[in-house]
Amino acid sequence: SAATSLSPTGCLISGNHVKTLSPTPGANQFFLVANPYASPVLPSSLSGNNLKNTFWMWDASAGSDVNNGLGIYVGFDRENNTYSVVGGSTGFGGSGTTLTRIESGQAFFAQAIDAVTPATILFDEDDKSNSLGGGMFGPTTPSATKEPGTLRLTLQQPSNTAAMRVLDGAVDF
Fold this sequence. Notes:
Blueprint: E1 17-21, E2 30-34, E3 47-49, E4 54-59, E5 72-77, E6 82-85, E7 107-111, E8 119-123, E9 151-158, E10 164-172
Antiparallel strand pairs: 1-8, 2-7, 3-8, 4-5, 5-6, 9-10
């Protein structure tokens, strides 16, 4: 490997930013929504219309008790300002904490309530944070138990037992 320098181009997005999500016929559609800022924002600071209360986001640092520490989706309940992690894992969101941020370049899933009214999400300039990243894109320190340079992707479904049922997966070395 060699050192790489990335040079972004374009204008920074500033000010309030509204994302309009126009569902097609059928309620309960999911939308992938990206943080438009070059700064993290707290999901608790986002407001919107025609949205279910839970945002779903990837927690790359979920503890070793779930999915072998390879990460998992967490739900953020906007009404109660809490996280829920399938299997009760600890990690970046952890169960019931409010530390998780939506990092610059990160996206999350939002679900529209009905298909008649467009859903909206407001990103407010005042919601930006100047704090350092919280490990959403991976652990802040590498794990000695994982192979360096390996990407693992697993699609799982909760089962009636304590274990998750693996549906599909891929490994890239």
